[in-house]
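Aim 2 progress update. The chain analyzed this quarter is reproduced below.
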Amino acid sequence: MKLTGVELRRVGMPLVAPFRTSFGTQTRREVLLLRVVTDEAEGWGECVAMTEPLYSSEYLGAAADVLRTFLVPALVTAGPIDAHAVAEVLEPFRGHRMAKAALEMAVLDAELRAEGRSFARELGAVHDRVPCGVSVGIMDTVPALLDAVEGYLDEGYVRIKLKIEPGWDVEPVRAVRERFGDEVLLQVDANTAYTLADARHLARLDPFDLLLIEQPLDEEDVLGHADLARHIRTPVCLDESIVSARSAAAAIRLGACAVVNIKPGRVGGYLEARRIHDVCTAHGIPVWCGGMLETGLGRAANVALAALPGFTLPGDTSGSARYYRTDITDPFVLDEGHLAVPAGPGLGVVPLADELAAVTLSTEWLAL
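Predicted structure tokens:
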């Protein structure tokens, strides 16, 4: 395909409720969307970078700048291209995986739409619906947490993930277990909030039979995670530390993780996410699909990825209503704890013009 234009569109979407993690509280999600126009079809991509470099070093302003200044011009210079060549063309530019992932996603969407194939088919999905978990942020009080968890279980979510940080960990987990029982699939996510010195404290979570503890230590401390795994019974899951198939293979070899959370934006795109899935499957490591408060565009792609055979744990592929009163696509609605995998060409969804216009903050057309 030949690129003829790229639109950068920044949108702002209020959350239905504040979402607090160990690195901050969000009340609104700003998202950078890409619309790639080719000589065959249009495609959409979504950049999952946040407005500030808190979760990772990337942020929306920098993503937009590197796209307009380096990444998009590089693709244009490369001439006619397919999605599988995007990563190779962009490889000379260090980092910026979230920006690269958004551009690859848009090119892949356009390519698949032109060919009448779906994301799910292209990635190798084996399911037409996927089980869904939900991520529950840090609350002001334990009773507020219990009310939130009860609401999500009533909606049908099959797994609960609790965000934790020092001072909000053992007691909230204990309260959820005592209230809802051992049959609830329960895991925790620290978002790098602890150090190896907290190993004895984190071992206090072992009696609660958690599915996993996600990214307890700094993203660069892979050896520390390997040491921690020898001191606690709860399986260690890596998130921020996994940025490629190579890093996943190294972490597995070191014994730093028993589970891997795959976030396509964090690793540079859905094709690299599939490679990480393949590496983990080959080593018997279960994977699940993480979320970054995506719109319906990113959610569609995540659900397709989560339908691959190695995704044996419910992911953070929540319904649209978990975060947004109105999505920019037809909403994803939970059905008995599952979401349907889109089967149409490309992502299988498109933005709804009125909803997209209502949340658009700015647009920029990059003529090629």
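The chain has two domains: 3-116+350-367, 121-340. The chain is about 35% helix and 20% strand. These observations will guide the mutagenesis experiments scheduled for the next reporting period.
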